[in-house]
Design brief:
Helix content: 10-25%
Structural class: mainly beta
CATH superfamily: Outer membrane protein transport protein (OMPP1/FadL/TodX)
Number of domains: 1
Number of helices: 8
Strand content: over 45%
CATH class: Mainly Beta
CATH topology: Porin
Length: 507
């Protein structure tokens, strides 16, 4: 009943309840199509090539390159290795998972008359566009003592300042669980977090009066030991309906109508302790859980032109993706210390905050491509993409004015460069590729540049092809533990390696 009660009130007072941040804008705006083994072997440099089910997701005109109906499906094993550095502490997590990367079919209908429209294709394809499985931890002694910003107490302190005491505290005879629900639904996320800080004794009012709006921290300045764990699971997926055609001998045109979906879960847990002289609160445990589900729509327009029999160019426009997103959160906060006598406080509401749905518009993207085909011997291909992450918009805009301004200031235009090559010998194909993605952040370090390479080979049985690819990428991030208060960062060196197996066959 508490969950339903929160939902109903939330829909009435929706403008006060949002708790999104810039990381949400970026998480659903980036794409990293897993795709077929051949696609990955060329590091995704397929915009001017086509003739591959995952290439259709880069340039929808690529389906018209198929000479006959084609289908494929791919399995992938991904391994993620995260090395972290947090002040004087280090950590390492290695994790792997096995899943379906893509599946699709394209039907080719050749013209039977003398029309310049040589053929039409109709297809449907599923691709994972981003993998959210992630796991890392940061442990160390935070010595960055600067206005108490090196303690989780600063998170609650920053959110509480300016809020009335009677709006962040439980009424007489009201349980902490009921107060947590009522404050969250009636007054919003900031008030709810300030309530946790006050009722856990992290905060004290300057004046014990209902209209007090200034607060004191019950922790003393000094060093704080932190043990922070981050675990996320899920993915972004896309189902594309493709229509493509070939005009004459040299021009291919296509369109994709894409249905997107989001499945994302995240859990973070922070343990903090200190023995600073004068600290009343010495131990804090703070857990946050997030569950996100969403759906969206986008479209793509693309073309491929053969300038000569060997040289071809491609151009693709990816529209923004228009998402509708629903989120749920749950929290736990525990504190311990001594205020004349030892105390131990736990606030475990065991309820789920159900936020009203919001809309997210991701940036559009332009991709230019060029490829040179050496007859039946091989090819070289290059793709360049540009996406302005600063144009990401949360909607309704009146509810997200400040956040949208922050997105515009913090995120920027990022380019992606991909190059790939293939050499054929009899039934064998040998492939390799390289890619470089610029940071989407203005500072270039919150999420760093990405570099990756790929190697693969394939064997052609005739109507059936079997492809295997190994690829690896790495980047270094400076990730803050929280986006308010305790914003000190953990340095994370991320390395992701994948083995992809694809079975493709003509129909």
């Amino acid at each position: 009943m508490k969950k339903l009660h929160l939902l109903c009130i939330g829909l009435i007072s929706m403008s006060t309840l949002y708790a999104q941040d810039i990381s949400d804008a970026l998480r659903y705006s980036q794409d990293n199509i897993q795709g077929t083994a051949r696609f990955r072997a060329l590091s995704g440099a397929f915009g001017a090539l086509g003739g591959d089910m995952s290439a259709v997701n880069i340039n929808p005109a690529g389906a018209a390159v198929f000479s006959q109906s084609h289908a494929s499906f791919s399995l992938i094993n991904s391994e993620l290795n995260n090395d972290t550095q947090y002040f004087n502490g280090t950590g390492n997590v290695n994790d792997s998972n096995f899943d379906l990367a893509q599946g699709g079919v394209s039907f080719v209908f050749k013209s039977t008359n003398n029309s310049p429209w040589k053929k039409f294709t109709v297809g449907i394809a599923y691709d994972r566009t981003n993998n959210h499985d992630d796991n890392w931890f940061a442990v160390g002694t935070n010595t960055n003592s600067n206005n108490f910003n090196n303690t989780i107490g600063s998170y609650f302190f920053d959110l509480a300042q300016g809020l009335r005491l009677d709006e962040i505290s439980a009424f007489q005879n009201e349980t902490l669980e009921d107060a947590y629900v009522n404050i969250g639904s009636d007054l919003g996320f900031d008030h709810q977090q300030a309530f946790l800080g006050f009722e856990s004794f992290i905060l004290d009012p300057e004046v014990d009066a209902d209209d007090n709006t200034n607060y004191l921290l019950n922790v003393a300045e000094g060093n704080f030991n932190h043990d922070y764990t981050f675990i996320s699971t899920g993915y972004n997926g896309k189902i594309a309906v493709n229509l493509a055609t070939q005009y004459g001998d040299d021009l291919y045109l296509g369109v994709n109508l894409n249905s997107h979906f989001i499945d994302y879960d995240r859990s973070t847990l922070l343990f903090e302790d200190n023995n600073n002289a004068g600290s009343i609160v010495t131990d804090v445990e703070f857990e946050n859980n997030l569950s996100t589900r969403g759906s969206g729509f986008s479209f793509q327009l693309g073309g491929i032109l053969k300038l000569t029999n060997e040289f071809r160019v491609g151009l693709t426009y990816d529209s923004p993706t228009w998402y509708t997103i629903n989120e749920e959160t749950s929290q736990f906060l525990g504190t311990a210390g001594n205020d004349g006598e030892p105390f131990n406080i736990s606030i475990n509401p065991q309820v789920t905050n159900i936020f009203p749905s919001y809309r997210l518009q991701t940036p559009s993207k332009i991709t230019g491509s060029a490829a040179y085909v050496f007859g039946q011997k091989g090819l070289l291909s290059f793709d360049y993409s540009s996406k302005n992450y600063g144009t990401t918009k949360f909607r309704p805009e009146n509810d997200f004015t400040g956040l949208n301004a922050d997105v515009s200031d913090v995120l920027t235009t990022a380019a992606t460069y991909r190059v790939g090559g293939e050499y054929k010998h009899k039934q064998f194909s040998f492939r390799g590729g390289y890619r470089f993605e610029e940071s989407p952040y203005v500072d270039g370090v919150t999420i760093g540049d990405l570099t990756g390479f790929s190697l693969g080979f394939g064997y052609n049985f005739g109507n059936t092809k079997l492809d295997l690819t190994y690829d690896k990428w790495e980047r270094t991030d400076q990730t803050p533990l929280f986006n308010i208060g305790l914003i000190d960062t953990a340095t994370i060196n991320r390395q992701n390696s994948n083995i992809t197996l694809t079975l493709g066959f003509n129909i």
